[in-house]
Amino acid sequence: MKSTMQATELTITSLMTRGAKLFAASEVITWQGERARHGTYAEVYTRAGRLANVLRRMGVEPGDRVATLAWNNQEHLEAYLAIPCMGAVLHTLNLRLTPQQLAHIVNDAGDKVIIVDGSLVPLLAAIRAHLPTVMHVIVVGEGDTSALGDHEKYDEAVAAAPEEYDWPELDEWSAAAMCYTTGTTGDPKGVVYSHRSIWLHCFGVWGAFHLDESERLLMIVPMFHVNAWGIPYAAWMLGCTLLLPDRFLQPEPLCAFIQAEHPTFTGGVPSIFTGMLQHAVATKADLSSIKRAICGGSAVPRTLIEAFRDQLGIELIQAWGMTETSPLGCIAFPPAGISPDEEMAWRSKTGRAVPGVELRVVAEDGAALPWDGQSVGELEARGPWITGSYYGVEAPERFHDGWLRTGDVGVIDSRGYLQITDRSKDVIKSGGEWISSVELENVLAAHPAVAEAAVVGVADAKWEERPLAAVVLKPGAEAGPDELRTFLHGKVARWWLPERWTFVEELPKTSVGKQDKKLIRQMYNDGKFEVQEVGKAAR
Ligand code: AMP
Predict the structure, then answer these.
(1) What is the pTM of this model?
(2) Measured from the CB, is residue 419 less than 6 Å from ligand 1?
């Protein structure tokens, strides 16, 4: 028997027109270093219509890719709406990639137009000659365009275009946006989001992040990576005030923006929040307008969650996801009925799958493992906003019976809480047994002298691999390998205790601000670290 329900399409156009009609006066505030620029949803909607007319004049057809190389600002939001709603595909480019990687991605996607921030023109100019599919370039704001060649200015083009645009009816399954993986596991691959997947993901974000119209939402996560966790679309659907930090993503300007505009909610990776915490504590900056912050992208140390609660009065909530999962996959709220003493243990797990997403861990032979909190396996995910393939490449090794193989390794407990212990590429296998780098890093981060720690596996004559701990100490703090080993003692298995230690000023990061473990291993192998050896591997 069929249902009696209507078959309306779930499209970004429906989100866009809803936001424009219901929340015309809601604000979009872009930080400009010292002051904010104020816009409204009504203005963004009008300019999105004008932008769509500009792109149509440039020959953009349904399905064509239009790329953005841009920071978090109002114009980027206009592109987020105009491009998918005209039936084209928004391709956000990661501005931290090397010129070669960028050229590869633009060519792979076959981008027809690139919208670039004035401040990023040199990056584009350096590869412009190698982008044969790009017919037009639009420059937002000021910048040195002398080496760029033909281009139009965003503001002038938009001002000259009509504001009415006859938004087409779209198929909810059609491509709306695309983003490339950051390539930590092989070449970057294109993930293509549909209107439907983005729409459903908005519902996931709405529920999981507990958002509503009253929220003043600071978007620290870059709009060039995984649609800024889908937050712009969810915020627009709900009418939240959007606070966009533009290129001012360092702790100092972020804290200034927060004190000027009083956000209530934000999201970001642990490294950004660690920097903000240190800056706020050192300068006594008041960040207390923020009530909740979502943190993910890499494991969130328990000490960071505690410090946010105790020193800033902010509830820091861990979430897990990846480019392929749109990205929201799971979120770590404690289960109901948990006593305050136990709460932190649950909050520092990776979390439970949000409604719509299914997770499982599987053994090397592909068999699903029990949810016993002990059986370690590769995490697999399935759901309406999880990718089922990659753009233009066959990658059968990344899928298993309709599930995405995430490349993360972990355990799931009887209540469905996931704990990621490693990336499969980063696991440390010592004498045939796994050592969790995530757990070692978490415990090390709890030492009062430690600002940040990364643990990677390095070759060992006897055990095949042993952990190397690379540690950044807090300014002025002192601690040596003996002290840190003693600190780990009793908190992790004895045979996990690293014998190799290096103390560094900072840890190398990937283009999206995660610890670059591949590079840390490489630097170790190339003898770039001063390594201190203490103790012996215990068995
Ligand atoms: P990306 O596709 O660049 O966003 O990276 C996704 C990867 O980030 C995941 O596969 C995980 O390895 C890692 N990641 C994201 N969130 C978490 C988390 N809460 N804990 C541990 N790793 C995470």
Answers:
(1) 0.90
(2) no
